[in-house]
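Good morning,

Attaching, inline, the backbone tokens for the sequence recovery test we're adding to the shared suite. The designed sequence is right after.
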């Protein structure tokens, strides 16, 4: 789905007061019914992460952390079965998964008498049953499953969705009988930074030569696309030549402005691929056949 920058900004404004919960995603879908759930979730995630980066520092001030922890302790004494951390995270406009991390870290400092290791902290966030305090374990679990932007569950889902779309891309290429090397094959050949696909024989898409394809299971906004250009796409271009980026959940259409420089954007697998074999057959077609075709 290609959106104009104005359309994107309208959706972004619609996310400003929302929290990263399923209920808020339903509200966003109700407001923009003509856009897919996946596109809206990707846009919301991008905008919420920007918002979090602007405000996260104030939640990590030691006095604030202590205030959060003491409030959690007092609230759970009164309401031991309530999702206290989830409610509190929404109240202070912090990702539930990030709130869970702050409180668990503070709890472990009390329990262990020192700074907990990152490995232990991450393992308990992934598997709350490892937390010795059952009330805290339940609160961490509630925060994890109700956060659609941060946390170990979201990380697993994003990884799985990314893998799914890379498989979809490979299947589409095989359907067209296009010979290619994927990221894993390229790494075994010694390449360190590679696109998802290198075409062994270049193709043309909408009149542009394509040597490589990168799959992004996300929406391409200004910030993320510029980051990808600087950290990935231009280095691919320098090493392998012009290529194609597929943003499966859409992108801001004004960003597709680098075609003449060698980077093409699409929101789906292209249907108008022209192969070398196809162009050779056209070149060898007798004049009478070419005239009949015209």
């Amino acid at each position: 789905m290609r959106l104009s920058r104005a359309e994107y900004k309208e959706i972004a404004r619609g996310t400003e007061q929302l929290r990263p919960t399923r209920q808020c995603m339903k509200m966003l879908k109700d407001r923009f019914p003509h856009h897919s759930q996946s596109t809206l979730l990707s846009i919301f995630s991008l905008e919420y992460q920007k918002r979090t980066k602007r405000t996260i520092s104030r939640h990590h001030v030691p006095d604030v952390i202590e205030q959060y922890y003491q409030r959690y302790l007092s609230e759970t004494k009164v309401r031991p079965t309530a999702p206290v951390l989830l409610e509190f995270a929404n109240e202070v406009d912090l990702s539930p998964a990030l709130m869970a991390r702050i409180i668990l870290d503070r709890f472990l400092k009390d329990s262990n008498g020192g700074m907990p290791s990152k490995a232990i902290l991450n393992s308990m966030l992934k598997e709350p049953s490892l937390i010795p305090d059952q009330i805290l374990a339940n609160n961490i679990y509630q925060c994890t499953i109700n956060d659609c932007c941060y946390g170990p569950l979201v990380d697993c889902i994003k990884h799985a969705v990314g893998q799914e779309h890379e498989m979809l891309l490979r299947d589409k290429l095989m359907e067209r009988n296009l010979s290619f090397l994927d990221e894993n094959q390229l790494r075994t050949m010694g390449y360190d930074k590679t696109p998802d696909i290198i075409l062994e024989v270049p193709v043309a898409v909408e009149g542009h030569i394509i040597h490589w394809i990168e799959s992004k299971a996300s929406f391409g906004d200004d910030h993320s696309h510029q980051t990808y250009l600087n950290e990935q796409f231009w280095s691919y271009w320098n090493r392998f030549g012009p290529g194609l980026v597929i943003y499966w959940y859409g992108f801001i259409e004004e960003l597709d402005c680098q075609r003449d420089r060698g980077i093409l954007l699409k929101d789906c697998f292209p249907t108008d691929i022209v192969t070398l074999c196809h162009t050779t057959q056209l070149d060898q077609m007798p004049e009478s056949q070419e005239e009949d075709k015209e």
